[in-house]
């Protein structure tokens, strides 16, 4: 981690929602999901917020050796967003506690605030992380 990794880092990330990021596309093998409205899925919204947080802190890490993984998410999903609208995520790093990072996150679709909340990530050493996952895979 670089000394520049400290609270106050802000980032804005934009993304046009394609049909592949709607509720029916989240689990196409689940008929319950396929029958649902074609709007930005909460699962993909969470991933979009994570993406913005990753982009915010990567310049402050020894990327790609150091990376971050999501460890907690507490966000609302307040409004439906159809495909074709551009969503904007605004994230701010509000706390650095060792390798634990806490972000305030929000998203807007140009019409409504669609999400707000908090997200936590943890800085990892990718090689060590991959080795632990490999050990777990072998044990199963």
TrEMBL record:
<feature type="active site">
    <location>
        <position position="50"/>
    </location>
</feature>
<feature type="binding site">
    <location>
        <position position="70"/>
    </location>
    <ligand>
        <name>substrate</name>
    </ligand>
</feature>
<dbReference type="InterPro" id="IPR054485">
    <property type="entry name" value="FlK-like_dom"/>
</dbReference>
<feature type="active site">
    <location>
        <position position="42"/>
    </location>
</feature>
<dbReference type="InterPro" id="IPR029069">
    <property type="entry name" value="HotDog_dom_sf"/>
</dbReference>
<feature type="binding site">
    <location>
        <position position="70"/>
    </location>
    <ligand>
        <name>CoA</name>
    </ligand>
</feature>
<protein>
    <submittedName>
        <fullName>Thioesterase superfamily protein</fullName>
    </submittedName>
</protein>
<dbReference type="InterPro" id="IPR025540">
    <property type="entry name" value="FlK"/>
</dbReference>
<feature type="domain" description="Fluoroacetyl-CoA-specific thioesterase-like">
    <location>
        <begin position="35"/>
        <end position="126"/>
    </location>
</feature>
<feature type="active site">
    <location>
        <position position="77"/>
    </location>
</feature>
<dbReference type="Pfam" id="PF22636">
    <property type="entry name" value="FlK"/>
</dbReference>
<feature type="binding site">
    <location>
        <position position="121"/>
    </location>
    <ligand>
        <name>substrate</name>
    </ligand>
</feature>
């Amino acid at each position: 981690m670089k000394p520049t990794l400290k609270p106050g880092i802000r980032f804005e990330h934009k993304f046009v929602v394609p049909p592949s990021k709607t509720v029916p596309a989240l689990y196409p093998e689940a008929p319950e999901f396929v029958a649902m409205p074609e709007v930005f899925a909460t699962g993909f919204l969470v991933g979009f917020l994570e993406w913005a947080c990753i982009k915010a802190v990567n310049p402050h890490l020894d990327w790609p050796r150091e990376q971050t993984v999501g460890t907690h998410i507490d966000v609302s999903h307040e409004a439906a967003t159809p495909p074709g609208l551009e969503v904007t995520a605004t994230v701010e790093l509000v706390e650095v506690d060792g390798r634990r990072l806490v972000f305030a996150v929000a998203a807007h679709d140009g019409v409504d605030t669609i999400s707000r909340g908090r997200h936590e990530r943890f800085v990892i050493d990718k090689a060590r992380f991959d080795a632990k996952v490999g050990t777990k895979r072998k044990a199963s």
